[in-house]
Design a protein that fits this description.
The chain has about 280 residues and is an alpha+beta fold. It contains 3 helices and 14 strands.
C-alpha cells in the first residue's frame, strides 16, 4: 500500500485571518493595560491626598493644637503651541501646624519673644548679607493660605521697653544690650526674630499666629485638586483653591471637609474621586 506524503500548507487567506485576530487581541490588551494604569494612578492620587489629611489629623491629636491642610494647583510646564505641547499641571497639598504668635513686627523682622528661636534655628552671623537657605513661615489662617519666605536662621534685634511684651529686665540674669559707654541699658534687650526674604504680600501684625509645614504631597502630572476652573492662568504659576481642611484635636475623619481630584483624560478633564470617600474607613 502506498502512503501519501503530500503536506498541505496554510493558505494566504487563513494567514490573514489569524494575523487579524492577533491584531484585534493586541489592540484590546493594550487598551486594557492603559485602563489599568489609569486606575492605579487614580487610586494613588487619592491615597496620597488622604494620607496628608490623615497625618494632619493625627498631628492635631498628638499636639492638642489645630492643624490645617492647604490645597493649590501649580503649572509644572508651560504650553508650547508651535511644538504641539500642552501645559502640565499638578495639585499640591500642604499640612501646617500652629507653632506660636508674632509679638512684634519691625520691618522685615518678625519677633516671637516667647519662643527660643535662637535654639531652634541658630543665629545668623551677619543679617545684612544672609547666605543661609529659606523656608516658608505660614500665617496660621484656617481659611486662606498665606506665607512668607524667611531665612532658616534667626537674627538678633534690640527691643525697647515700649515695644516688647516680655517683662522688663531688672537684674543681671538677662542678656542685655550694652551702650557704647559699656553701661547696661535696662530698656533694651535682645530678641530673636525671623527675617523675611519675601513677604509674598502678607501683612504681618502683632498677635498673628504662625505655623510650620510638616507634610507635603504633590499629585502626579495632570492630576489637580478641584475642577478645571482651579487651574493657574496667565502669568500665575500657582492658584490656591481657597479650600482648606481644618483638623482639631477632637476631629474625626468623617467630620472633615472633602476635596475632589480631577485628572486630564485624552478628551477632557474628569473628576476621578474625592477624599471623603477614601477617608470613610479611617
Amino acid at each position: 500500500m502506498a502512503i501519501s506524503m503530500i503536506k498541505r500548507a496554510f493558505t494566504l487567506v487563513e494567514l490573514l485571518v489569524v494575523m487579524g485576530i492577533i491584531a484585534v487581541m493586541a489592540t484590546m490588551s493594550i487598551g486594557s493595560y492603559f485602563a489599568v494604569v489609569r486606575g492605579m494612578t487614580d487610586r494613588g492620587a487619592l491615597a496620597a491626598a488622604t494620607s496628608v489629611i490623615s497625618l494632619a489629623l493625627e498631628r492635631a491629636c498628638i499636639d492638642l493644637s489645630p492643624t490645617v491642610v492647604y490645597f493649590y494647583n501649580e503649572r509644572v510646564r508651560d504650553a508650547n503651541k508651535e511644538a504641539g505641547i500642552d501645559a502640565v499641571y499638578a495639585g499640591v497639598a500642604v499640612a501646617v501646624r500652629r507653632a506660636g504668635r508674632i509679638s512684634r513686627v519691625d520691618g522685615n523682622n518678625l519677633n516671637d519673644e516667647y519662643a527660643d528661636l535662637d535654639r531652634t534655628y541658630g543665629v545668623m552671623d551677619n543679617p545684612n548679607s544672609p547666605k543661609c537657605e529659606t523656608t516658608r513661615l505660614y500665617r496660621f489662617n484656617l481659611s486662606k493660605m498665606e506665607y512668607s519666605l524667611v531665612y532658616s536662621e534667626a537674627v538678633e534685634s534690640a527691643i525697647g521697653n515700649e515695644k516688647y511684651l516680655v517683662e522688663q529686665p531688672v537684674n543681671h540674669n538677662f542678656k542685655m544690650w550694652y551702650d557704647e559707654d559699656k553701661k547696661e541699658n535696662p530698656e533694651r534687650i535682645y530678641a530673636y526674630s525671623f527675617l523675611c526674604k519675601d513677604k509674598h504680600g502678607v501683612n504681618w501684625r502683632s498677635g498673628d499666629a504662625y505655623g510650620y509645614e510638616f507634610a507635603r504631597v504633590r499629585l502626579p502630572d495632570n492630576y489637580i485638586f478641584g475642577a478645571q476652573g482651579n487651574l493657574p492662568s496667565g502669568t500665575d504659576s500657582t492658584k490656591s483653591l481657597g479650600t482648606t481642611i481644618k483638623c482639631y484635636p477632637d476631629s474625626r475623619a468623617t467630620d472633615l471637609e472633602t476635596i475632589g481630584i480631577t485628572a486630564r483624560r485624552p478628551n477632557a478633564w474628569k473628576e476621578v474621586g474625592n477624599t471623603k470617600s477614601e477617608m470613610k474607613d479611617i
